[in-house]
Amino acid sequence: MRAKETTVGSARCLVCCLLSRLFAAPLARARYARVKASAKERATAKLASIATMSRSVKLYYDLMSQPSRALYIFLSTNKIPFDRCPIALRKMQHKTDEYRRQVNRYGKVPCIVDGSFRLAESVAIYRYLCREFPTDGHWYPSDTVRQARVDEYLSWQHLNLRADVSLYFFHVWLNPLLGKEPDAGKTERLRRRLDGVLNFFDQELLSGGSGQAFLAGDRISIADLSAACEIEQAKIAGYDPCEGRPALASWLTAVRERTNPFYDEAHKYVYRLAPDNIVTPVVAIDE
Questions:
Q1: Less crowded by CB within 10 Å, the N or C end of the chain?
Q2: Could you report the per-residue pLDDT of 126-185, keeping only the tens digit for each?
Q3: Which residues pair with 83 in a beta bridge?
Q4: Helices and strands (H and E) in the chain: how many
């Protein structure tokens, strides 16, 4: 009886061994195929990343232009290779037929050229760069709500903060260079408008109870970079945007710290042109 049981047990072991080998081989082959495919995907992704980062875009810009400065800082901070193509607004280089034909049909800066593709308008350029190049996700978040906050600010800025800073800058600083005497009444009206938009920025967008360090959350985004470069422009016209606005002052310092040394590099002319009553960092001006 014992011999019979031993024989049966041996037979069962043999069957189990055979079944194990029968199924183990396909499983092993499947695992190997998965590992091989995963390695291939990683290699492909790495090659794609190398190819992307080896390609260089051309940035046409003037550091006296607020959105030009913002894109200059964005490209530099994210280590996106780019060729610097300065355009002198004071010489009207952006309005030449050649520039309109070969670079930007709208006759403005900034503009990028990526191969045969030309793209104007800073907001469109930000989004394109975030899709085409490896960038930290906080710049233009994939999270729907945070991305919507970035888009909301960028949509609001153009006819509000940007408009009011630009109007004051042109009337107070640029007009005298063109031989036009600023009207005192208009200067006061434009100052009140600028006061109002910056107070809103300080009290609602930054101090509105959200507890967030930046406009779209706890990390810097393209909204912050764009806003900071607009606000800095007012300093050239002798207007201190940080005076009496502690939240704005703290936020502006944080944006600068997160993006230096490129922030100061892009704002070197702003710092030099600001009058003595406006405190600015001391940086080298020209290479």
A1: C
A2: 999 999 999 999 999 999 999 999 999 999 999 999 999 999 999 999 999 999 999 999
A3: 58
A4: 12, 4
Q: What's the token pair of residue 33?
A: 């195929």
**pLDDT tens string 78-102:** 999 999 999 999 999 999 999 999 9
CB 114 within 8 A of CB 83: no
Give pairs for 31-34: CB < 8 Å, separation 24+. Answer: none
What CA–CA distance (Å, rounded) separates 76 from 216?
22
Task: Give the chain's radius of gyration (CA, Å).
Answer: 29
The one-letter amino acid code at 19 reads L
In this structure, what are the phi and psi dihedrals at residue 208, rounded to the nearest 5 degrees?
A: -80, 20
Q: Say which residue the tokens 């050229």 belong to.
A: 113
Q: Contacts from 277-280 at CB under 8 Å and sequence distance 24+?
A: 277/238, 277/240, 278/235, 278/238, 278/239, 278/240, 279/240, 280/235
Helix (H, G, I), strand (E, B) or coil at 149: helix
Is the CB of residue 258 less than 8 Å from the CB of residue 220?
yes
d(CA 58, CA 45): 24
Percent helix / strand / coil, the chain, rounded to 5: 65, 5, 30
Residue with tokens 């069962």: 12
Q: What is the dihedral of CA 193, 69, 64, 99, to 10 degrees?
A: -120
